[in-house]
Amino acid sequence: MISDRTIRVGAVVDDTVAEGPGRRFAVWVQGCSIRCPGCFNPHLWGAKGGTGIGAAELAERALAVPGIDGVTLLGGEPFEQARPLADFASRLAAQGLSVMTFSGFTYRELNGAGAPDGAAELLSATDLLVSGPYLSGQPDLRRPWVGSTNQEFHFLTDRLRHVEAGLADLPDRIEVRVTASGEVTVNGWADLDQLDTLLADDFRRRNRPA
Ligand code: SF4
């Protein structure tokens, strides 16, 4: 049953070091109406796909992962599901975990009169917000986790503020997972040429004649 506490989830990685500081439980939500040209996740644009998971159930799954430092919300557009995600994030924050949220909306849009429903709740459950649409013509090769230079970091609480001073020194990372059946998934961020090379090498290795 879909309720106002249900999150439409496109994908989850339980434990990653490529989506924010430290080890994080990452949730890619399903649905984004912003539709930036060049977006890497167009399969997450449609609001009708994904799997509906209750905020409490997803929080239980995150809290069962040993040793994580926090959760990262990305997408898709988290602020188009702000209320259930605020519920989810608050449950983790109450257990001492940090919350990092990505948005294609600008900080001004999230705080203005036309802000998405529930935006204030998700902002108040977020420690570190990365805001702004992806602009493919302005690639950011300097800061970690972001795709374009217009995107802004907002440290909304002190919980992750220690990251701020060393931001430019943190590397981008990508993680490649290969399942037993050979399915390859990639998350994180890297220079496009590096990603092409890596995936081409991986493809060649897996298809090398015996
Ligand atoms: S806001 Fe994010 S998910 Fe939405 S189109 Fe832009 S880059 Fe893609």
Automatic annotation (TrEMBL):
Entry's Gene Ontology molecular function annotations: 4 iron, 4 sulfur cluster binding; [formate-C-acetyltransferase]-activating enzyme activity; metal ion binding; ribonucleoside-diphosphate reductase activity, thioredoxin disulfide as acceptor
The protein's required cofactors: [4Fe-4S] cluster
Matches recorded under SUPFAM superfamilies: Radical SAM enzymes
KW Cytoplasm (keyword) present: no
A Pfam family recorded for this sequence: Fer4_12
InterPro entries, per database record: Aldolase_TIM, NrdG, Organic_radical-activating, rSAM, rSAM_sf
Keyword terms: 4Fe-4S, Iron, Iron-sulfur, Metal-binding, S-adenosyl-L-methionine
Keyword Nuclease in annotation: no
Protein name according to UniProt: Uncharacterized protein
